[in-house]
């Protein structure tokens, strides 16, 4: 038996593109009322035009702690579903060359913003009859690759924070899931490569990659499972993506 999302309120961060936009659209399609956030107001307006009055929105920069506090405080009630999706990777330079500014922004968005919003909403969500938190982590949180450094570490944080939330929420009716996608074509690589569309396109060339819609399907699937089932971690890759051998540096 599937759980209905009819009439539930879902807050989706980073709803202006990619996985967040696809998830907002799918949840509205399943009868939920969605509040979508992001920095790009025109994108939020376009989502509203597409999805109608079941999509409400607010501009919110996840690196702005005060704005997060005010936003959460202004909500009329706690959401039934929180999708902590907003996030980004910046650059692929090695750790000895990477930009500290990029590192700070990834930490501020992927970690600090996510925990601040969660902390602000959690008391209200815990008081609900039941609630869901879905944190968008990444396979990069489990498997290192050259240049992932702080991005990968930030996603390892998201996964571990999700598991620790489950511990703290023991006995409550709040489910927590860490969703960990692999290669998914969105604006992710364009952001990583500072707007270089050609470089970004090459990441997905010939790969039969996952799409944002695929990830939204998995998110909707776990949200509609019977309420006593908690998927702790869901790792998703396209069939075309798998694992390489360890690299061994040899002398001589
Ligand atoms: N695509 C992949 O291969 C992949 C794989 C694993 C995990 N992920 C994760 O999936 C999540 C969504 O990424 P995506 O692939 O859908 O990329 P995307 O298309 O670039 O979407 C990223 C979203 O995050 C929002 N965002 C970024 N910085 C923000 C900030 N400071 N404040 C508020 N919102 C912010 C963006 O909105 P604005 O720019 O409008 O603010 C946008 O809506 C991220 O957490 C990413 O790490 C992606």
Automatic annotation (TrEMBL):
InterPro entries linked: KR_dom, NAD(P)-bd_dom_sf, Sc_DH/Rdtase_CS, SDR_fam
Q: Which SUPFAM superfamilies match?
A: NAD(P)-binding Rossmann-fold domains
What GO annotations for molecular function exist for this entry? oxidoreductase activity, acting on the CH-OH group of donors, NAD or NADP as acceptor
Q: Is Oxidoreductase there in the keyword field?
A: yes
Q: Does the keyword Oxidoreductase apply?
A: yes
Keywords of this entry: Oxidoreductase
Q: Which residues form the Ketoreductase domain?
A: 8-186
Regarding protein family, the annotation reads:
Belongs to the short-chain dehydrogenases/reductases (SDR) family.
**Listed name of the protein:** SDR family NAD(P)-dependent oxidoreductase
């Amino acid at each position: 038996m599937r759980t209905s999302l009819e009439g539930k309120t879902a807050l989706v961060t980073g709803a202006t593109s990619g996985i967040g936009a696809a998830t907002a659209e799918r949840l509205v399609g399943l009868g939920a009322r969605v509040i979508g956030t992001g920095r790009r107001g025109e994108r939020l307006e376009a989502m509203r035009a597409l999805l109608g009055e079941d999509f409400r929105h607010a501009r919110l920069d996840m690196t702005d702690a005060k704005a997060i506090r005010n936003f959460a405080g202004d909500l009329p009630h706690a959401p039934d579903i929180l999708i902590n999706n907003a996030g980004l990777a910046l650059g692929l330079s090695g750790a000895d060359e990477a930009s500290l500014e990029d590192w700070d922004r990834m930490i501020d968005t992927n970690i600090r913003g996510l925990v601040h919003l969660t902390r602000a909403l959690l008391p209200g969500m815990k008081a609900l009859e039941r609630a869901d938190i879905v944190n968008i982590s990444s396979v990069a949180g489990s498997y290192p690759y050259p240049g992932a450094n702080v991005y990968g570490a930030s996603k390892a944080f998201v996964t571990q924070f999700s598991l620790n939330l489950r511990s703290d929420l023991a006995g409550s009716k709040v489910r927590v899931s860490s969703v960990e996608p692999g290669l998914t074509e969105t604006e992710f690589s364009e952001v990583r490569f500072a707007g270089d569309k050609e470089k970004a396109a090459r990441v997905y060339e010939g790969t039969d990659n996952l799409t944002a819609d695929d990830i939204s399907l998995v998110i909707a699937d776990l949200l509609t499972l019977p309420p006593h089932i908690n998927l702790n971690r869901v790792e998703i890759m396209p069939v075309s993506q798998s694992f390489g051998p360890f690299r061994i540096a040899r002398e001589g």
